[in-house]
Amino acid sequence: MKNNSEHKQEFLFEKVNYKILLIGITVIALGFILMSGGGSEDPNVFNEDVFNFRRIRLAPTTVLIGFGITIYAILKNPKKT
Questions:
Q1: Alpha-carbon distance 37 to 33, whole Å?
Q2: Rounded Cα distance, 45 and 25, in Å
């Protein structure tokens, strides 16, 4: 019989990969937070804040950077010993 205590569970990624992944998810969430707002209380009044720099350029760029960070965290190879 094999002893079950000999079987060590290994994670798919290392601790560094998970940290980078959490940083990427945080950056993505920040980008979506930057996109929010700019609505109008009255549907007959148009609010120009929808087209400001933060919502058109900064927020989507932040989200794409966050996706890049998460892809890097997934593709980063663990150290081989």
A1: 9
A2: 35
pLDDT tens-digit map of 44-61: 888 888 889 999 999 999
Transcribe the chain into DSSP letters: ---GGG-----SS-HHHHHHHHHHHHHHHHHHHHH-----SSTTS--GGGGSHIIIIIHHHHHHHHHHHHHHHHHPPPPP-
Does the global pTM surpass 0.90?
no
- Give yes or no for residue 80 having a pLDDT over 90: no
**Residue 28 identity:** I
